[in-house]
TrEMBL record:
Residues 336-427 form the Cyclic nucleotide-binding domain. Keywords: Membrane, Transmembrane, Transmembrane helix. PANTHER family: AFR304WP (PTHR43310:SF4), SULFATE TRANSPORTER YBAR-RELATED (PTHR43310). The chain crosses the membrane at residues 38-59, 71-91, 97-116, 128-159. Residues 195-270 form the STAS domain. This is Sulfate transporter family protein. It is a multi-pass membrane protein. GO terms for cellular component: membrane.
Length: 462
């Protein structure tokens, strides 16, 4: 009984797929399953003992003969009713040559389509699978042939999947950056030592074959003496569909390898289910392993670690006058420039400006941290960027005189200097040389930002 049910379900699904290909049209699978179930229930109530489902051969034959309407089904039902009430003797009136010829024609037609035409249209592995199914059905039967086909198809799928690259993209902080806007000096330091972070964006399904590929990639990068040594490995799981238990052994090997080299291991965008698997089997409690919600947060964390090592004074609060002196030549009167600015303080949660407001000038962030918030839907916002001290906000709108496209809010106590459009026009009248030097400063700043964005875009397109 189980074999009959299994054969009926598999046969129905395969036949519907075959009919879709032959007729070159979509078939509502859910509808066909319901109709087949109802038909079998009614057939059982009427005394029918065999499982029935849609016929591939008869459906294709009717289509090729031009009989594609539902009238064919009613005629078939009529013949079945005649056989039911008139007895099997009625079937003897049909010419055996006609029935046998049609059956032989359909069989040969399918053999030519799959065995002859398939040689030219299918890949060698797919053709081998079709041939194996045909031979298995011929020697052992339909159900056995289908089972053999499923087993071999799964094996081929695993082999092909393991050959696909699980790594969608690899990069470093030299090519990529977080959404944290830092000073030019800090950005240069991060870019200089950016190769010490190895970023791997993963994709697809992680199982033993693909996870072993990941382990080999990380190991080869660690052993590569021609490239700078790495201090961080970041794996982004944003595009990973799932994590199989067979892959966990390779993550244990990755963990042991990175621990032996004193490399920080950052995992981003892990689902709760995958995180629980890794924590249970691999162990994620070590100090060198860090779990973060998304890739951008992981990049920002690595940037902070690099700055702590190579620029330890980056957290030291410097006066705006000291900050600007690093970007202007000695001939520029920095105190005079600052005299045109208006200082003020922001408390945590206080807005610098709101989305849609008119841009009245630009802002110098002396200390603190600000975040750019974009309203993408009612009651739904997204953080686009974070500004650290020694950065400038609103310089694009300052020149374009456009409205603010997003809001800026203080994440912590912040010290800000405001340079209004009116103050700048006054500086152009009173101190034209100072205004010219300021123009050059802004142009240089924008060029640097465009160059960094261009590097990020090239990395995404490569």
């Amino acid at each position: 009984m189980f074999s009959i049910i299994l054969l009926g379900v598999i046969g129905l699904l395969l036949n519907i797929s075959g009919i879709e290909i032959a007729l070159q049209k979509d078939i509502a699978l859910n509808h066909e399953l319901k109709i087949t179930g109802i038909a079998n229930i009614l057939s059982g109530l009427m005394g029918g003992g065999l499982t029935s489902y849609v016929s591939l051969s008869r459906s294709v034959l009717n289509h090729r003969l031009g009989a594609s309407s539902r009238v064919v089904g009613w005629f078939l039902s009529g013949f079945c009713a005649l056989a039911l009430f008139g007895g099997m003797s009625i079937l003897s009136l049909l010419p055996e040559v006609l029935i046998g010829g049609l059956t032989l024609f359909l069989g040969l037609n399918f053999l030519v389509e799959w065995l002859y035409d398939g040689w030219w249209n299918l890949s060698k592995s797919d053709y081998f699978l079709v041939l194996l199914i045909v031979v298995s059905i011929g020697f052992w039967g339909l159900l056995q042939g289908i089972i053999v086909g499923f087993i071999v198809a799964m094996i081929l799928f695993v082999i092909k999947s393991s050959r696909l690259s699980i790594i969608k993209n690899s990069s470093s902080l030299f090519h990529s950056s977080s959404h944290v806007q830092r000073s030019s000096l800090e950005t240069k330091i991060i870019k200089k030592h950016g190769e010490s972070l190895y970023i791997l964006e993963l994709q697809g399904w992680l199982f033993f074959g693909t996870a072993n590929q990941l382990f080999n990639t990380i190991r080869n990068r660690l052993y590569d003496g021609e490239q700078p040594s790495i201090k961080f490995v970041l794996l982004d799981f944003h595009m990973v569909n799932g994590l199989d238990s067979s892959a966990l052994i390779n993550f244990i090997k990755i963990k042991q390898l990175l621990k032996s080299y004193s490399v920080n291991f950052i995992l981003t965008s892990l689902t709760i289910k995958d995180q629980e698997k890794l924590d249970k089997q691999v162990g994620l409690q070590d100090d060198f392993i860090h779990l973060v919600e998304e890739k951008n947060i992981g990049l920002a964390w690595c940037e902070e670690k690099l700055l702590e090592e190579y620029y330890p004074i980056h957290k030291t609060c410097q006066l705006l006058e000291t900050q600007l002196s690093n970007y202007f030549p000695p001939s520029v009167d920095i105190p005079k420039l600052i005299s045109y600015l208006k200082p003020f303080k922001l408390l945590p949660g206080e807005f610098l400006f709101s989305q849609g407001q008119l841009n009245l000038g630009m802002y110098f962030l002396e200390s603190g941290q600000l975040s750019v918030i974009k309203e993408i839907a009612p009651d739904k916002t997204k953080c686009l960027r974070t500004y650290k001290s020694e950065t400038i906000i609103g310089e694009m709108g300052f020149y374009s005189q456009s409205n603010h496209s997003a809001s800026v809010i203080a994440d912590e106590h912040s010290s800000v200097y405001f340079f209004s459009s009116h103050a700048f026009k006054r500086m152009e009248r009173e101190e034209p040389k100072l205004a010219s030097a300021f123009h050059k400063f802004i142009v240089k700043l924008l060029i640097e930002r465009v160059q960094y964005r261009e590097q990020d875009m090239q990395n995404l397109l490569s």
